[in-house]
Specification:
It is built from nine helices and 28 strands. It is an alpha/beta fold. It has two domains: 232 residues, Spore Coat Polysaccharide Biosynthesis Protein SpsA, Chain A (Alpha-Beta Complex), CATH 3.90.550; 96 residues, Hexapeptide repeat proteins (UDP N-Acetylglucosamine Acyltransferase, domain 1).
């Protein structure tokens, strides 16, 4: 069985981060979201992987993942020249997949409990496809599945205008070779993409066995800032404390805190769950619960909680507490000089600031 991961797309909901970086590389608990997808596949015994990348951010993904050996996998890459739909990602991976059964994993989807049981059910069964569903009060912003009494999928509708089912289709799918007949038969939608819902509906209409697995654990599509913060919270809740850094005698570490190699804590309080990245310095500061600070950052004379800070960022001399924030890479947040209370900012397109 093979694994196909989609790591393209424009990531419009995470701008301005995605103007310069792949949305799948935004870290959750100091690990890129994409890495969780790779680890989930490897844990389920799927180690022959292909990642579909975009021309704009593909080199970043390649640099981060490499040949896959660090994950115990073998990884190759295919460039998708433009956002042409999930089904198009399947279509261009035909040579890689061959006639094998495979797992399709959208690289910005996060599942806390992994996919071993779902993969085993597909591996050991005779179904032609299996989709993963998540029960929601209102799944109208995504693909929605209707099931019969035997758990077979009878109908799929993308963003239905009326309620038809509580079962939203999340970004993990399992197919056999019949899916290639489907992706070659369907036509682009109104937005010019080959839709995965049309692909699965084709299989259903042609009497193939499409089953569903209802996910009971946590799932998040990490497409918005609030999703990143929630995924970060879910992972930090499971971390075991570890100290590979340096903590001076005037600092206090409370609760479950991970200090990665080279982290330095001076005259500060860290209250977990939290993770401090490699070579990051925390000086005369407070880092509160559900905070992840990535590598090579400086946090000095400020307070921060329930936030994610990306690499090579500096936050110094901020008089009010920072909370519920996603702070990008190579960012500088500092108090403005002068005697008056002023704010001095350079903010990128599509940014949001709360004062």
């Amino acid at each position: 069985m093979k694994g196909l991961i989609l790591s393209g797309g424009k990531g419009t909901r995470l701008r301005p981060f995605t103007y310069t970086g792949a949305k799948q590389l935004v870290p959750v608990a100091n690990k890129p979201v994409l890495f969780y997808a790779i680890e989930d596949l490897v844990e389920a015994g799927v180690t022959d992987l292909c990642i579909v990348i975009s021309p704009e951010t593909g080199d970043q993904v390649k640099a981060a993942v490499g040949d896959g050996s660090r994950f115990g996998a073998r990884v190759e890459y295919i460039v998708q020249d433009a956002p042409r739909g999930i089904a198009h990602g399947i279509k261009i991976a035909r040579d890689f997949i061959g006639d094998e059964r495979f797992i399709l994993f959208l690289g910005d989807n996060f599942i806390r409990d992994g996919i071993i049981s779902q993969v085993n059910a597909f591996r050991e069964g005779t179904m032609n496809a299996q989709i993963i569903l998540y029960k929601l009060e209102d799944p109208s912003s995504m693909g929605v599945a209707v099931l019969d009494g035997d758990g077979r999928v009878t109908r799929l509708v993308e963003k239905p205008k009326q309620f038809i089912s509580p079962y939203g289709v999340i970004g993990i799918y399992m197919f056999d070779h019949h899916v290639f007949e489907a992706v070659n038969a369907i036509k682009p939608s109104a937005r010019g993409e080959l839709e995965i819902t049309d692909t699965i509906q084709y299989l259903i209409d042609h009497k193939l066995d499409v089953r569903a697995h209802l996910l009971n654990g946590a799932w998040i599509d990490t497409g918005k800032m609030s999703d990143i913060l929630e995924a970060n919270r879910l992972v930090l809740d499971t971390l075991e404390p570890k100290n590979e850094g340096q903590v001076d005698g005037t600092s206090i570490i409370e609760g479950r805190v991970v200090l990665q190699a080279g982290a330095v804590i001076q005259n500060s309080r860290i209250r977990g769950p939290a993770i401090i990245g490699e070579r990051t310095r925390i000086e005369n500061a407070f880092v509160g619960p559900y905070t992840s600070i990535y590598h090579d950052c400086l946090i000095r004379h400020c307070e921060i909680e329930h936030s994610v800070v990306l690499e090579h960022s500096t936050i110094v001399d901020i008089p009010t507490r920072i909370a519920d924030s996603l702070i990008g890479r190579n960012t500088e947040v500092a108090r403005a000089g002068g005697h008056t209370k002023t704010l001095k900012m350079m903010i990128g397109d599509y940014s949001k600031v709360g004062i």
